[in-house]
Task: structure prediction
Amino acid sequence: MENTAIERQPKKTDNNANQTGYYVSLTIAIIIGLFGVFVRFVPDVIPSLGQSTFIFSLIANLAVLLASFLAFKVVFAILGFGSKKE
Result:
């Protein structure tokens, strides 16, 4: 029986996900998010800051929102959404 399979050239890909910049950006986003989580509970640990609960919650919520935005932006860049390829 003769082999009729056609030899194909390997696909060329960008291998976009292996760029170091993505890993650095995700690490920064994770650090910002963890900062927001820890700041949220500072008034619970230090009772003298109990009157500033609103400020700490506001800072924490903004940090978590910023971290989420950065993380989604990096993930979508890795997946190729939003990039203008021609």
In short: Residues 19-79 form one domain. The chain is about 60% helix and 0% strand. The CA atoms of residues 17 and 79 lie 8 Å apart. The mean pLDDT is 87.
